[in-house]
Fold this sequence. Notes:
Blueprint: E1 31-37, E2 43-48, E3 51-58, E4 64-69, E5 75-80, E6 89-97, E7 112-122, E8 127-137, E9 141-150, E10 161-168, E11 171-184, E12 187-198, E13 204-208, H1 209-218, E14 225-226, E15 228-236, E16 239-250, E17 271-273, E18 283-285, E19 289-293, E20 303-307, E21 315-319, E22 330-339, E23 343-353, E24 356-367, E25 373-381, E26 387-394, E27 402-411, E28 433-437, E29 442-446, E30 453-462, E31 465-473, E32 477-479, E33 489-498, E34 501-502, H2 504-509, E35 512-515, E36 536-541, E37 543-544, E38 551-556, E39 560-562, E40 565-566, E41 578-585, H3 592-602, E42 608-611, H4 619-627, E43 631-634, H5 647-665, E44 673-674, H6 682-687, E45 693-694, E46 698-699, H7 708-721, E47 728-732, H8 736-751, E48 755-756, H9 759-765, E49 775-776
Parallel strand pairs: 9-12, 36-39, 37-40, 41-42, 41-47, 41-48, 42-43, 44-45, 45-49, 46-47
Antiparallel strand pairs: 1-4, 2-3, 3-6, 4-5, 5-16, 6-15, 7-13, 7-16, 8-9, 8-14, 8-15, 10-11, 11-12, 17-27, 18-21, 19-20, 20-27, 21-26, 22-25, 22-27, 23-24, 23-26, 24-28, 28-29, 29-32, 30-31, 30-33, 33-34, 33-35, 36-38
Amino acid sequence: MKTTVSKRIISALVSGVLMATPIMSAVTASAAKTLTTSPSHTQEVGWYNDYHHEIWQADTPNSSTMTLHDNDGGFSTQWKCGPNNSRGNFLARRGLYWGLNNPKTYKDYKPFYCDYDCSWYAGSSGNSRICIYGWAQNPLVEYYIIEDWKNWSPAQDGSAQYKGQTTIDGSVYKVYTTSRNSYTIEGNKNFTQYISIRQNLRTKGTISVSEHFKVWESMGMKMGNLYEVAFNVEGWESDGQADVTLNMYEGESGYHPDPEPEESEIEGTLYSATFENGTNYWSGRGSASVASSSSKAYEGSKSLYVSGRTANWNGGEVEVNTSTFKPGNSYSFSAMVNPAESTTVQLSMQYDQNGTTKYTQIAEGSCTAGKWTKLENTNFTIPSGASNVKMYVEAPDSLCDIYVDRAIIADKGYVASGDTPVYNNANVPSNVKMEYNSQYKQMKFTWDAVNGADKYGIAVYLAGKWRVQDSNISGTSYTTPKGLTPGMSYKVAIAARVNGKWDTTAAIDNYVVVTTRSYNNIQYHTPSNTNTNTNTNTNTNTNTNTNTNTNTNTNTNTNTNTNTNTNNGYYVDPNKPMVAISFDDGTAQGYSGQKIIDALYKNGFRATFFYVGNWIGKPDQVRDAYSKGMEIANHTTSHPNLTEIQSYQIRSEYDNCASKLKSIIGAEPSKLMRLPYLASNWQVQQTLNDVPLISCAIDTQDWNGASAYQIENTIKNAANNGSLNGAIVLCHETYDNTATAMENVLPWLKSQGYQVVTISDMFKAKGKTLNGGQVYTRVS
């Protein structure tokens, strides 16, 4: 494929599964592993020092090597694919990896950067390049950000479509797309390549990866769910070598070029977007797509059409240049909006401050379908210390499409033409802001004081009603309970009591919409057979235990069960490290579930098993798990996303599964419930206020195709860095890889002094209570 950037796919049909263990070789000062490919062994894939790597070759009789650096994410490599008439292909890459069906797009992460220094050489035959490389799904895209190349570049491909150019990291990049049909991460099918080629070639520097993603989307090239982001060295019919020092990360770049201020299209303003010649660098937020459209326009002939919104916070967004618009200063913000249905539309701001991503409302309006409405705030202050600032349009009560036109930022006091809805009320708190704590998954609201107010109250709209959370707030801040689900949106109203009266109508009219945002990894959990649950139930479980241990569950239900279990030496020592490895879903058709139960029992361990009522195909296996001391717990009846159904349905999902489990084991199951998709919100927590809700601290990713080696290493790494102690670990009993991993890692944990226990036993041993309506990921 001399005139294409061809896909050297890493075993596409089994992507995400680790291949053979890398071959070890001599260790140098900067490297610890050397991988070798040959005609009979064409690929090595795996993880090392938190970086994913791959070396691959094809159609060559020669061998190539990749040596992984031990002190950074870099590597050195040598390849030999020509000139030998072998038509050989080669690549070596290392970086960030999520695998197939990652639910997140690049917008769900902080910006990606790559700091690199590459010393490399390639011969005069064939072609070679160094680049950022990866895949995304929905749509299926293979992408390249080419920093340097030898002999040929994709710009010389006659089938490449030129999309335009952009300036990033101090250089012009030309952007191309090509359509292909070949091997992909999803099998052999059609896909599109997105390619940025740097015009001022270089071999070291900082690559602002996410900036390319944003520019591509502004050109109509949608970036879907991320599969990987890696630094790549590759060659076609070429010989060469490279040594790469590499640091790839998510967060703030150390490189800050001086940006050129944009020239506004509208006289008297500092920034404007009229969308007459494209999207003006606006992009879709969440799942939304944006495009310049001639269907509707407030001024001129075109506007920005925002479609494909699957969540209220989805919409259109644009970056705010903080070199031009200084944090701490006040400006006038305005946008004309036209929703497809009558609803509230909001102009909002997202920004990072002190390591936390925050959100605040700029302006909002009650809009009529088909009518243009101005959203404007003529005196809005960009928070001091803000970075990564974005302005965006959303509809908090609707998933409708939205047209946006004439977006403006101007000096404070500037008033754009058009009608603005008026919501001002002296007795309603203003300047409401929300700060999200990703560690505790809770929100903190602040607002400006209302003159004469002695109390404040806060309410949230749940299950079709406004529900008061607190009406005795003395100051101007409120912090929610912990354990809120990241990515969920809420309507919140804040009222003030002035002269003994509450103006709740005005407070509701001025509600704000907030969304919990987290850039940290989600983590999960499990339950057990020794519970302290809030039911009226006394279970006397007399366990035959060589340590003479009596296990008493004090539950509150009117039900007495006597269950004789063989305890097999199981005893929880509160002074030793412990972990609650839990298993979800139901009994599998194969033998994986039974293998897991047997491996736990063989090692004298216990675990919590969360069953989906409708997925229990082997009731005898559930009974066997119970007889061996495992905690039998609830994972709902049909595994719905509880945040998307009504409160009575939530209750029914829990109660029906509990009844089924009770009918199988002849006793009350654990009160614990694993949240399907780990999703929760205030309604779920209020409806199940008597049920401890379990998430996780460590996700083994077995549901996402992780190999037994990866699952085992996830647990071992957590044990080695100390995060395993007290953690709830998420696994699934329905995968053979999980069963194999447990057969290997459980004896290792035992040799390291770890106890594997049920969730309930772990909390009891630490003197902690599992309270209803609260989400747990570990014992504190």
